[in-house]
Amino acid sequence: MAEEQVGEKKSSTEKKESMELAEAVRIVNAAIKAETERLERITKEEEQDPIIIEGETSTGYQVQLMFDPAKAAKIMLDYWYPAYKVLGEEAPREMWDSLARQAGLEDVYYVDI
User: What span, in angstroms and rounded, lies between the C-alpha atoms of 22 and 16?
Assistant: First the structure.
């Protein structure tokens, strides 16, 4: 009989952990969706103020440039940036390289979007 209670306790603990995990996944997915929708809105807006990107020229100068926010948002969406941002992870190097090519820079390391 004591064994049954231990089994029941485990299953209720497992259920609680499963519910907590499901809630955490729901929260993360909602945050990713919100960030994705924000960037998608930016790609569709017309007549936007430029944003600032920071990077480095091929000669090694650090620069700040004004950049089209719709282009930046499109590139960021292409590389699943919302998921990286929400999870606190570094975005893929390819995304930064793509932004740099669009801006005519050797490297980009910051986008104010």
Answer: 10
Rounded Cα distance between 76 and 97, Å, is 11
Alpha-carbon Rg for the chain in angstroms: 22
pLDDT in tens, 15-57: 888 889 899 999 999 999 999 999 999 999 988 999 999 999 9
Sign for the CA dihedral angle at 15, 17, 21, 24 comes to positive
Helical (H) or strand (E) element with 55: strand 51-56
Find where tokens 């930016």 sit: 42
Cα–Cα distance between 104 and 65 in angstroms, integer?
10
By residue count, the chain amounts to 113
Could you give phi then psi for residue 36, rounded to 5 degrees? -60, -45
**Per-residue pLDDT tens digits for 61-92:** 999 999 999 999 999 999 999 999 999 999 99
